[in-house]
Fold this sequence. Notes:
Layout lengths: L4 H11 L19 H18 L6 H7 L5 H11 L3 H11 L4
Amino acid sequence: GELEITDLNQLYLQEGTLHVERLGRGMAWLDAGTPDSLLQAATFVQTIQSRQGNLVGCPEEVAFRMGFISAAALRERAGMIGKTELGRILGDIAAGVHV
Length: 99
């Protein structure tokens, strides 16, 4: 059967290894386990990305902004992604166009 996140949390709790942190402002937990919740999550991501210009859940952007990778590495990754909206945005971020 499917392993739910609550099952994993219960296992960690039983082992005494569960660590909980509250999500701060600007964070969201999106459950996409049903068609309706998947649509809600997709709409949320679309709204944030289109209205605020921020990528949601993009490890490449986070790595660049936190100084873990260089602009050259981000450009290379953007090139690997190809001619998609994500590739274009990452290229713009690397070039300093998309702040």
